[in-house]
Amino acid sequence: MSTELSPIDKAKFVAAKKAVEFVEDGMRVGLGTGSTAAWMVRCLGELVRDEGLKIKGVPTSTRTAQLAREVGIEVVSLDAAKWLDITIDGADEFDGDLNLIKGGGGALLQEKIVATASDQMIVIADAGKEVETLGQFPLPVELVPFGWQTTQALIEETLVSLDVLARKSTLRMNGDTPFVTDEGNHILDLHLKRIGNAQQTAMVLNQMPGVVENGLFIDICDRVVIGYGDGRVEVRDINAGTIEENMLDFVESENVFSDLAD
Ligand SMILES: O=C[C@H](O)[C@H](O)[C@H](O)COP(=O)(O)O
């Protein structure tokens, strides 16, 4: 079974497998969105089914909510949970300070609300997501549909004052129509190449009328679990640096793989 996985999927899987070790019985858990987070939801589902782990999961997208229910996790709303013990989510990029770019899958708004309402946020990622400076991955910005072109023009104008290398932006599409988020908004992807001051960029973007949220997660993530294609995992803590490195076994979770729908 494991030989069917590409090295990148193996890396995502081992990161997810390691991260669920931080989830304890009775916890309220924020469930991220994306291909890496999907592994984590499946691994949690396995613990719920096979080991009787009792958790309440707060999903960050309709996709994740559906998957969580499929694998047997009790799903509750954030308002019902009120506060979360832990959130585990993927990322598009992370830097040495564990600041992130998220939103490649368009779920950044719910993801940021959920992560911010958690005692700790753990990011799971393959090693290729680590960057020296954020910005090679296009920065997603969620916009209300009303007047989005005006908002885009305002953003492009304002980028001139920010420490970024490039300033192109594109509306994310879903075929011939604009992509629509779970909250009914659009996503503008900012092709900045290098974001010199991520905190300032995040603040300036969020002050603009029409902008709902941006994909920069600054000072939110506590730990990153980095997975490698050969099964190695590294746990990096915001305060303590690398706190654990080991190898994980692919075979023990064959039932997680066999559940895979995509
Ligand atoms: O909106 C999507 C999320 O921020 C994802 O967590 C992020 O795009 C990473 O996704 P993946 O694990 O599929 O690379």
TrEMBL record:
Keyword field contains Transport: no
Pfam family, one: Rib_5-P_isom_A
Matches recorded under CDD domains: RPI_A
Cell membrane listed as a keyword: no
Enzyme superclass (EC): isomerase
EC numbers for this chain: 5.3.1.6
Quaternary structure annotation from Swiss-Prot or TrEMBL: Homodimer.
Function: Catalyzes the reversible conversion of ribose-5-phosphate to ribulose 5-phosphate.
UniProt-listed HAMAP family: Rib_5P_isom_A
Family according to the record: Belongs to the ribose 5-phosphate isomerase family.
Full protein name: Ribose-5-phosphate isomerase A
Organism of this sequence: Cognatishimia coralii
Gene that this sequence comes from: rpiA
